[in-house]
Design brief:
With 519 residues, the chain is an alpha/beta fold. It has three domains: 189 residues, Rossmann fold, CATH 3.40.50.880; 189 residues, Rossmann fold (3-Layer(aba) Sandwich), CATH 3.40.50.620; 102 residues, 2-Layer Sandwich (GMP Synthetase, Chain A, domain 3), CATH 3.30.300. It has 14 helices and 18 strands. Helix 5 crosses helix 6 and helix 5 crosses helix 11.
C-alpha cells in the first residue's frame, strides 16, 4: 500500500492560510502537498492528484504581473476547489467578472445558501439558514462565468460560493480552512470524500511504517549521525531512526548550558536510558559561556551559538568510523517556506536550516525523514513511537535556547537564574491547567536591577519578565490573559525561591507589533 498515491495537490497563490489547508486535508486522512502556483504543468500531471485546491493570496487577478491560473489543470478532468483568490482566478479564467469590493470583508461573516450545492448542501444552520465563516478579501466576483451557479451570498457580496457540478469545479470566497469557519472541516470532508473519492490512508501507524521502510531502503546497513537538541523534531527523528536501524544510529547531544531546567539530564534519561538509543553527550557549557563573553548583540549571539555547535558536532563526528549519513529534523513547513524564499514569490520570506554549515569534507549524505510532515503529525508520531507526551507536546523553544532569552550578555549565573524562573513558571502553568491553553510561555532575564524588600531586608537584584501567548499559526499572537491570582502566585514563588530576583513583570504585548521572543 502506497499511502501517497491517494493525494491532493494544493497550488499556493501566497495566502497566509495555505499551510492550514494542507493540515486540514491531512487531518482528514488524505496526503497532500503544497506547490507554487506556477509549477511546471508536466509535474502536476506526473503527480497525478485526485483533486486540486487553489489557495487564497494577497494579489488581484487584474494585475499584469500577478499570479495566473494555468487553465490546463481543468483538462485533467479532476475536481478543483478554489478558495478566496483561487475562486476569483477560476471566475476570471472562465469569463466571469472580478471587481474591487465596495465594502471589504475581513473577519467573521454569515453566508446564506442561495442554490442547491453539491459542496455545501446540508451544512448550513437548519434554523437560521446561515453558515458562520471567515472572510479576508478585497475583490469579489460580481458576474458569474458561463456554466457556473452561485450557491451562497452575504449582505455585502452577492456571490460567496459557486460551482459547476458537471465539471466538478467549486469556488469559496470564504476560508474554509480556518477554525472560525464552523463547518470548514465538513466542507473539506465533502470535497475529499464525496467529490474526489479519496481514501483515508494518511494515518499515524501507516506513516510510521512507510517511513521506516523508506529509511531502511535509503540507509541500508550504513551508520547515521544525528545532532540531538532535545527538541521535538530531533527527538522524534531519533526515535524513528532507532526503530528503523537500531544501533546504526549515533546521536550527538551538545549540552550548551542554555537549555531548559535540567533538560540535559532529562534528554539522556529518555533517549539513552529509557529508549536505549546510542547518545554521546558533550558537556560544553563552559565553552559556550566563554564564547559569548562580552557579546550583547542578538544576531551575533545566534551566530556564536550556532557556529560553536557546528564546531563541536564536527569534532565528535570525526571521532566516529563508518558514518555515511547525517540526519536532520527538517519538517514540511521548513520545506514550503524555504522554497518560497528561494523563488521570491512569498510575501513572508523565511528561510530555514538545521545543522547546516557542516564542512563539505565530512562528505555525509543527508537523511531528512520528517521533511514531508507537519508539526502536529510529528508530535503524533512521537507519542506512537514511545516518547513521553510531555516532551512531545512541549511549547516551542528557540534553537539558541536561553541565549536569546537573556537580554544582552550571556553569563552562567544569568542562565541559572533564568532556567529556575522558567521552570517555576512552566510548572505552575501545568498545575493550574493553563499550559495547554497557551501556545508558548517562557521567562526572560532582564540584566537590570530593581529594589525590593524581602522580609525586613532590602534586596537590589534582577528582573524576570514572564511571556505567554495564544496563537494558531505563530504569525500573529495575542498575549495570554492569565488569571491575576496565577500571576501573583508565580511571582511570589520566583522572588521567594530565587534570591537573585527582586521583581517579576508580565509582558502584555501582542504580535504584531511585538515579536513573540524578546530577541
Amino acid at each position: 500500500m502506497n499511502i501517497k498515491n491517494n493525494k491532493i495537490l494544493i497550488l499556493d497563490f501566497g495566502s497566509q492560510f495555505t499551510q492550514l489547508i494542507a493540515r486540514r486535508v491531512r487531518e482528514l486522512g488524505v496526503y497532500c502537498e503544497v506547490w507554487p502556483w506556477d509549477v511546471d504543468f508536466a509535474l502536476i500531471k506526473e503527480f497525478n492528484p485526485k483533486g486540486i485546491v487553489l489557495s487564497g493570496g494577497p494579489e488581484s487577478v487584474h494585475l499584469d504581473d500577478g499570479p495566473q491560473l494555468d487553465g490546463r489543470i481543468f483538462d485533467l478532468k479532476i475536481p478543483v476547489l478554489g478558495i478566496c483568490y483561487g475562486m476569483q482566478a477560476i471566475a476570471h479564467h472562465f469569463g466571469g467578472s472580478v471587481v474591487p469590493s465596495d465594502e471589504k470583508e475581513f473577519g467573521y461573516a454569515q453566508v446564506e445558501l442561495t442554490n442547491k450545492s453539491g459542496l455545501l448542501q446540508g451544512l448550513f444552520d437548519k434554523e437560521q439558514g446561515f453558515l458562520d465563516v471567515w472572510m479576508s478579501h478585497g475583490d469579489k466576483v460580481d458576474v458569474m462565468p458561463q456554466g457556473f451557479v452561485a450557491t451562497s451570498k452575504t449582505a455585502t457580496a452577492p456571490i460567496t460560493s459557486f460551482e459547476n457540478g458537471d465539471a466538478q469545479i467549486y469556488g469559496l470566497q470564504f476560508h474554509a480552512e480556518v477554525e472560525h469557519t464552523t463547518q470548514g472541516r465538513k466542507i473539506f470532508e465533502r470535497f475529499l470524500f464525496g467529490i474526489c473519492a479519496c481514501e483515508k490512508l494518511w494515518k499515524t501507524d501507516n506513516i510510521i511504517q512507510t517511513h521506516i521502510k523508506s529509511i531502511k531502503n535509503q540507509a541500508g546497513n550504513d551508520k547515521v549521525l544525528l545532532g540531538l537538541s532535545g527538541g521535538v523534531d530531533s527527538s522524534v527523528v531519533a526515535a524513528l531512526l532507532h526503530q528503523a536501524i537500531g544501533d546504526n544510529l549515533v546521536c550527538v547531544f551538545v549540552d550548551t548550558g542554555l537549555l531548559r531546567y535540567k533538560e540535559g539530564d532529562q534528554v539522556m534519561q529518555t533517549m539513552a536510558d529509557d529508549m536505549d538509543i546510542n547518545v554521546i553527550r558533550v558537556n560544553a557549557q563552559q565553552m559556550y559561556y566563554d564564547a559569548l563573553k562580552g557579546e550583547s548583540d542578538p544576531e551575533k549571539k545566534r551566530k556564536i551559538i550556532g557556529g560553536l555547535f557546528i564546531k563541536i558536532f564536527e569534532e565528535e563526528a570525526r571521532k566516529l568510523d563508518n558514518v555515511k549519513w547525517l540526519a536532520q529534523g527538517t519538517i514540511y513547513p521548513d520545506v514550503i517556506e524555504s522554497a518560497a524564499s528561494k523563488t521570491g514569490k512569498s510575501h513572508v520570506i523565511k528561510s530555514h536550516h538545521n545543522v547546516g554549515g557542516l564542512p563539505a569534507d565530512m562528505n555525509l549524505k543527508l537523511l531528512e525523514p520528517l521533511r514531508d510532515l507537519f508539526k502536529d503529525e510529528v508530535r503524533k508520531m512521537g507519542v506512537a513511537l514511545g516518547l513521553p507526551k510531555a516532551m512531545v507536546y512541549r511549547h516551542p523553544f528557540p534553537g539558541p535556547g536561553l541565549g536569546v532569552r537573556i537580554l544582552g550578555e550571556v553569563k552562567q549565573k544569568y542562565a541559572q537564574i533564568l532556567a529556575k524562573a522558567d521552570h517555576i513558571f512552566i510548572t505552575e502553568l501545568v498545575k493550574w491547567d493553563l499550559y495547554d491553553k497557551t501556545s508558548q510561555a517562557f521567562a526572560v532575564f532582564l540584566p537590570v536591577k530593581s529594589v525590593g524588600v524581602v522580609g525586613d531586608a532590602r534586596r537590589y537584584q534582577y528582573v524576570i519578565a514572564l511571556r505567554a501567548v495564544e496563537t494558531i499559526d505563530f504569525m500573529t499572537a495575542r498575549w495570554a490573559h492569565l488569571p491575576y491570582e496565577f500571576l501573583e502566585h508565580v511571582s511570589t514563588r520566583i522572588i521567594n525561591e530565587i534570591d537573585k530576583v527582586s521583581r517579576v513583570v508580565y509582558d502584555i504585548s501582542s504580535k504584531p507589533p511585538a515579536t513573540i521572543e524578546w530577541e
